[in-house]
């Protein structure tokens, strides 16, 4: 029998990065008070070390500290770039693809009057439903989708999505974990559900040897603590050049209206930059449907 997918562990890392940066990094431009509420007690420990700038001595804890700190440095400009693109294009519907532990439905006042749908694999959504219990505010409509079996359009329609109305789609931190065929199929499915004036915001990684080596080093560091890296079960499967991603979106009726790497965003936010290569290889592309 096929193995049942487990809740995403990379989603926890992203959430830890946001929690570590909340209120401390790019104040006035970045905030995510929901992040720490979505973490369990053991997941908050490394977050507090980073927030206190208190690097622990023991090697295992030090690796956790450095991992969360590195994630925060990447996640802040990525989140700001995507949030800005959402605010600039108000829609009555927002769909977050591969939502993980995203907190936008709760934390973004601009989405208060929108219907927010979170699409993710069933095990990750079950895990999130447990985590959000007691979180104040209006949550999203959860749409569990097994992309190997379920059709996105049908699942969204059953949940109340209206394909005749404009939709803002957020696709953050997911593309690298999909094959090129899966990315193409998802864009086609999104296009089929996108009325005129819809917007697709997609985050993806560019190819780069140094980036691959960096991920290998991160896996080896985790292995040195006696634990298996989260990326062992969630490896990258595709990278994209901006031209290739733009061509894919164009084929499906979208026009690219924005494209920039996170290094430019970090510089605009006057953030300290310690991992320029990682930032430069992560992009946010915005595409609209006329």
Notes on the structure:
The protein is α/β, with parallel strands linked by helices and 290 residues long. Helix content is 46%, strand content 14%. The chain has 13 helices and 7 strands. A 7-stranded mixed β-sheet has the order 3-2-1-4-5-7-6, with helices on both faces. α6 links the parallel β2 and β3 (141-144). α3 packs across α4 (59-87). The longest helix has 29 residues, at 59-87. The chain is globular. The termini are far apart. The model has no long low-confidence stretch (mean pLDDT 92).
Based on secondary structure, the structural category is: alpha/beta
Indicate the mean pLDDT: 92
The ordered H/E elements are: HHHHEHEHEHEHEHHHEHHE
Strand content: 5-15%
Helix content: 40-55%
Count of helical regions: 13
What shape does the CA trace take? globular
What is the total tally of β strands? Answer: 7
Biggest sheet, strands in spatial order?
A: 3-2-1-4-5-7-6
Distance between the termini: 45 Å
Low-pLDDT runs of 5+ residues are none
Radius of gyration of CA atoms, rounded to a whole number: 18 Å
Major beta sheet summary: 7 strands, mixed
